[in-house]
Amino acid sequence: MASSSSISMLLFFMFLNLCTLSIQETHSPKLLKPLLNQSFSVSFPLTTIHISKQQYDTKKNVISSLVSSPSNKIKVHGKSRILPTYNFKASFKYSMALIVSIPIGTPTQPQQMVLDTGSQLSWIQCKKAPKRPPPPTPSFDPSLSSTFSVLPCNHPICKPRIPDYTLPTTCDQKRLCHYSYFYADGTLAEGNLVREKFTFSSSQSTPPLILGCTTESGEAEGILGMNLGRLSFASQAKVRKFSYCVPSKQGLSKVMPRGTFYLGQNPNSHAFKYISFLTFPQSQQKPNMDHLAYTVGMVGIRIGGMKLNISRTVFLPDANGSGQTMIDSGTQYTFLVEEAYNKVREEVVRLVGPKLKKGYVYGGALDMCFDGNNPVEIGRMIGDMVLEFGKGVEILVSKDKLLDNVGAGVHCFGMGRSQTLGVASNIIGNFHQQNLWVEFDVANRRVGFGKANCGTTV
């Protein structure tokens, strides 16, 4: 869900089991200190869920590749509101999202949230004030929390534009800070900016953090924004590092595999291989660059052991910021800029061209698809795919994990063109992060990868 990438707007989530969590620590200081401590570690189940109804939801306010055009007037609560319009193609519908259940409030109310390393604002679904106590629901009930507060209009954050936080805000009729979060498909999520604490145990919690309390969007349970923005959960909670293992997708099975999400130290990190984030001065504004994304230096792609003839410069931002390569847990598939994608497609066509489903594009984004229920044979003909980074770091996508079952007997190569999303970046999505530890070591500005088997099911 993502800055130059996308998060998944979820329609009608299934309510998952409450999370269980484990904590390993050498001592138990209170409030924010544990998140700053090297030994802090808390883990949550990470679940993939099927989305039955959904639209591509790249955020208008953080997609740097979108070009402003004349403003557009819409109706919100019966009132006219002027919005900028953008040139984009955002028809693709995701089918999967990564979910963690986070305990929020006092006493805690576990909230299902999309794990999104590509966006800043964290927000939860809030229940409107009820006339009487309702039965338990997935939505957060502010009236039940003693640590909940709403930001007033005079709060410094409640400004229309802040350099690294471009969330449009206004004063509502109660003089509270109201935000409207618009997505590229025209979806609107709005509510109040609030403060609320995240609690991990009786002795482990954050102070109240700023997040969105959404009341006008029934389309997502919530978003856990984890990018480099100063108001992301990772930044506000001063998380030194976090990591996750995406469980392997089990076709269209309703039995959901379960991975793990760590805040703090991961006991498996001794086996990780690291590459540094690429950083660019925000003062050097580039129209197609997302300065808050986790940008890495990708150097090439191999398919079936053959190195594709792709210039390294294709994976690096040019003078306008196009070509940035980012790791995004909120985007389902991987998307490449035109020059890189064309080389991948040429090789796939060379290897299995006659078996391609002619004239078929899944969701307007994936155009290498196959009929039949034997994707293993196609995978063997293509061979393993390797995404290459600096310092010899690689992401291996085994031949049996190249194709995704999109339904109706169709399997698609899990990679598409960035231009179908209206972005000018290379995005490594969660489909190509399956059974892989991905660690964001924010303190040392690096990302680590390690082999894993996420393995359990729920």
UniProtKB/TrEMBL annotation:
Please name the InterPro entries in this protein's record: Aspartic_peptidase_AS, Pepsin-like_plant, PEPTIDASE_A1, Peptidase_aspartic_dom_sf, Plant_Aspart_Prot_A1, TAXi_C, TAXi_N
Q: Which stretches are transmembrane?
A: none
Provide the alphabetized UniProt keywords: Aspartyl protease, Glycoprotein, Hydrolase, Protease, Signal
The residue range of the signal peptide is 1-22
Q: Which GO terms describe its biological process?
A: proteolysis
Single GO term (MF): aspartic-type endopeptidase activity
Q: Give the species.
A: Lithospermum erythrorhizon (Purple gromwell)
Question: Where does the Peptidase A1 domain lie?
Answer: 98-450
The UniProt entry's GO CC annotations, sorted and at most eight, read: extracellular region
Give the protein family.
Belongs to the peptidase A1 family.
Q: Which PANTHER family match?
A: ASPARTYL PROTEASE FAMILY PROTEIN, OS07G0603500 PROTEIN-RELATED
This protein is called Protease
